[in-house]
Write a structure and sequence with these properties.
By secondary structure, the chain is of the alpha/beta class. It is built from 16 helices and 9 strands.
């Protein structure tokens, strides 16, 4: 058995039979017997502090206080181990205002001065100890930790609990109800969004892929954009009922024109062949980026006029775009399919997206969109007034439809 194990067994046998002084002396004897490193060994085995063991060694070197024989082992001792009133006084007993001042520093706006010097700084324990010292309190950084625990404080990160708009759940219910109505009638319901822009070239791509051991694919150290290849912006259209998707891989700006052009291509290549009798389509999208604002509505109106179908739009409330169906039914699988593979060319991006499948039967078609899309286009109030736009009673800014204008459809 090791020294630690032997001393630990002895300690268990004696801990309940020796008083504090005798236990300290026994630990000191064991440490002195072991020689170099004995104090650390005994402290590890018994849980006693090194300071206590060193105090016992000091007691061994000094003569005993009296010749009175000690009480027998296991018998109750009548002598005092500590003097009456002995021991270090608590900081809070010696300094009655310490806890109050510390609490005021930690929560200055609630309990103290709103202009506290720690109002806009990191409340580390060394900084708190320094601030308390400037207020006349003698306290160490370690003691500040103990006092904070006594006050009920602990180190905590922020917690994400506030999500979206107050009508968030009501809008989710609205979207689910509307989607069920469209699907029951055999009309298409699509979820649209732009995937994260991707650098094209031999850049690192997150994830791992199988390669011969010790032969990883080498990529660039720095992610500086390649001036010739640039970035791509994949805009996805996901058919919820069919579990099929379309992705236009844009090489220019992610604008509302690009978004609607992607929907147009989906309709011509996949939507209309699957829903030849459909006279309306439901689009679910988030509120920002290329899926919002005036230009988005104007371009959707052009699409409705061109195709002669009604376009209903339901936006997800702000801060809830992660619940958009396309995110967890299509985009996540695309990301998984190209994990660990550098997107060395636009053709590679298109092929990797188009070859993405799942056991649930997901099928995706992808196409490169080489058009250029101008940014900063404005839609005047007059143009907006000409749209055949009908807003729902419940949050018309989120729920609206664009009907085809008959005179334009006829021509």
């Amino acid at each position: 058995m090791s020294d630690v194990g032997t001393i630990e067994d002895k300690y268990r046998a004696l801990a309940g039979r020796l008083d504090e002084a005798m236990l300290r002396l026994w630990a000191a004897v064991e440490a002195r017997t072991l020689g170099r490193g004995g104090v650390s060994t005994v402290a590890k085995a018994t849980g006693l502090s090194r300071t206590t063991i060193y105090s016992g060694l000091k007691d061994l070197e000094s003569p005993p206080p009296s010749l009175t024989p000690p009480a027998a082992v296991g018998a109750a001792s009548t002598r005092r181990i500590r003097a009456a009133g002995g021991g270090r006084k608590k900081l809070t007993d010696k300094d009655p205002t310490l806890l109050r001042d510390l609490d005021a520093l930690v929560e200055p706006t609630a309990r103290g001065d709103p202009q506290s010097p720690l109002r806009w700084t990191c409340k580390s324990t060394p900084r708190l100890a320094k601030e308390l010292a400037e207020r006349g309190h003698q306290v160490s950084q370690r003691s500040v930790c103990d006092l904070l625990a006594h006050l009920g404080y602990s180190l905590q990160a922020t917690r994400k609990t506030r999500e979206g708009h107050p009508d968030r759940d009501a809008q989710f219910t609205q979207i689910a109800r509307r989607a069920a109505q469209y699907q029951a009638a055999g009309d298409p319901v699509i979820s649209v969004d732009t995937k994260k822009k991707e650098l094209v070239g031999d850049f690192k791509n997150g994830g791992q892929e199988w390669h011969p051991k010790g032969e990883p694919e080498e990529v660039r150290v720095y992610d500086f954009i390649d001036p010739d290849l640039g970035k791509v912006a994949p805009y996805g259209v996901y058919d919820v009922a069919a579990n099929q998707g379309w992705v236009s891989v844009g090489i220019d700006h992610d604008t509302a024109e690009f978004a609607v052009e992607s929907i147009r291509r989906w309709w011509k290549e996949m939507g209309h062949p699957r829903y030849p009798k459909a006279r309306r389509v439901l689009i679910t999208a988030d509120c920002g980026g290329s899926n919002g604002y005036r230009l988005w509505k104007r371009e959707l109106q052009k699409l409705a006029d061109e195709l002669g179908i009604e376009i209903q739009v339901c936006h997800f409330p702000p801060g809830t775009s992660k619940w958009n169906t396309i995110e967890h039914r299509m985009f996540c699988h695309i990301t998984n399919n190209w994990r660990g593979r550098p997107l060395v060319s636009r053709e590679v991006v298109v092929n990797l997206i188009g070859c993405t499948t799942t056991e649930a039967g997901l099928h995706i078609r992808s196409q490169l969109d080489e058009n250029t899309y101008e940014t900063g286009l404005k839609v005047s109030d007059e143009e907006l007034a000409e749209l055949a736009l009908e807003r729902d009673e419940f949050h018309g800014e989120w729920n609206y439809r664009l009907r085809p204008r008959e005179k334009l459809v006829a021509t």
